[in-house]
Amino acid sequence: MGSPFQVNSKGLTAGPLKLFILPFPENYLPLNNHITVKVLSTLLSSMRVGIITDIHENEAALAEALKMAEASKCDELACLGDIVGFDTRFFKYSQNKSASACVKMIRSGCKWIVAGNHDLNAAQRFPSFSEGFLFPADWFDKKGTERKKTSSGKVWCYENDAPPDLGEKEIEFLKGLPEFIATEEPGIPCMFSHYIFPDLSGSTTQYAERRNQMKRHWEFMENHKTSFSFIGHSHNHFAGFAYRENGSFLKAFHSLHHDNFYLGKDQAVIMLPPLSGEKGRAGFSILDTDSMNLTIVLLYK
Question: Is 211 helix (H, G, I), strand (E, B) or coil?
């Protein structure tokens, strides 16, 4: 059987749930930092997609999440980045951390994988967007404190990250990850990235807090014909939602304190909780593209 993918010059294009119904429902293209997957509409079929983000070398939590995703009958898995990156200020699971083991599990278990800012740093890759900051050639030779001074705080400098136990194969894998994937294969046109356009990898120190900061991402989604965009990076304990047509007049995202959602049909960006939180709730998510339900599966609260 032939491949359902079309290729262009830029790359491959336990109990009943209580649903919370939401009350609101290419200007720039990094040529070498994305994969776009197009599937013929006749081949589209719904599926259950497990979505994991912000692992940060937590081997034990990732192994448990993969086990739970299999038990939940997920058809495929997506990873939204930050597989690696252990900030010693926040994370306390040093006995159960392994960047190498996490990369291997994600590589073998996930169909869609994008790079987060920590992954780019570990692979010594510059992001496609840096808020106007020009990285010096010796950036990766500088200490974190030197980087911070050089960048004036515009980009993350990783001065508190512990050295990862990555081998050459894992580093090469991270070097090859795209910054986003647009695909119809799950049964709906969706986008996976670590954060929002233009900072798709979350490499700058800026976060979207106001509605007007979403404008370029909406245009980016429209140019890639995607209805739903799934991101991580923020480490919020609860899922956050931004709807293009009926969202807040001021806020970029609404954080909703529920674990089951009906996504509806309006174009939306969904910010998912991390697998490894500094404290509090952490887990992964399951998207059912048949019912359009999103479930947050908690490893711990």
Answer: helix
d(CA 110, CA 107): 6
Residues 6+ apart with CB under 8 A from 284: 50, 51, 52, 53, 65, 68, 69, 272, 275, 296, 297, 299
**Residue 246, phi then psi, degrees to nearest 5:** -125, 30
Rounded distance, CA 284 to CA 274, Å? 7
The residue among 267, 265, 264, 258 whose CA lies nearest residue 285 is 258
Across the chain, mean pLDDT equals 86
- 87-125: per-residue pLDDT in tens? 998 888 877 899 999 999 999 999 999 999 999 999 999
Contacts for 18 with CB less than 8 Å, ≥ 6 apart: 260
Domains of the chain, CATH where assigned = 7-300 (3.60.21.10)
- Cα Rg, the chain, nearest whole Å: 18
What token pair was written down for 178?
Answer: 């795209």
The pTM is what?
0.86
